[in-house]
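Lecture 7 notes: from sequence to structure.
We start with the chain below.
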Amino acid sequence: MWEKLTHLFRVPELRKRILFTLGAIIIFRLGTHIPVPGVDPEALKNFFSQQGGGLFDFLNMFTGGALQRFSLFALGVMPYINASIIFSLLTAVVPKLKEMQQQGREGQRKITMYTRWSTLALAIVQAATMSMLIVNAGMASGGVWFYVMSIITLTTGTIYLMWLGERMTENGIGNGISMIIMIGILARFPAQLATTYNDITTGSVSPFWGIAVIVLFAVVIGGVTMIQQGQRKIVIQYAKRTSGRRVYGGHMSHLPIRVNQGGVIPIIFASALLTIPLT
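Predicted structure tokens for the same chain:
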């Protein structure tokens, strides 16, 4: 196993991509700990502790805890996801955009530009809305200075994450935006494991409950993996045709149909819809 891991770093191009991805992840995690000026961290902590798994706690999971700290990346990449989904839907109903999509690389470049500008607009609206929520909840002093600083900071953080995700896709490993969302979710695992271990050692919960959670977690991961990798192969039989003295065709092939054809897009879409009330 270790030999295979070390072999990955022997390929210059692959090593460069891995290091770039790791560097981008570190930058993302550092940004989640840079708070917006003027916010009371203790009031924020108490507010989220009272949510008890509510909407804000769910959205906080996708930002890797940045929303709970009201940090630079508190909005995460959700404005970009919303803008991408909006233009994906508009492309199917607006003839102008559909024609633009069929123009190849040039048309896709224009749609990408429109998506970026829409991301900027959505980020500004969501940043202003969240700033008002923070002030109304008594977690910030308010004032024009705070609103200007928070809107600029949160919007800049979202635009930077959008740019970072695109660079990760181009120079790193995998889809950059999906990688940022995944890292944000996984970032909470160590704290959750530590809390579970502390509850077991202090006697707050029984060891049987802890073992049951671990087994259930493994079963869920295994089930998700099976569904994600599962596919149905449909046999395709090509008809034979004769040309002169030669016979063509007649061979067989398979058309793989995945069980989960949509992937994680429905989950991301549902999560993006939950951010609409914030606008």
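Points to note: The longest strand covers residues 231-237. The mean pLDDT is 81.
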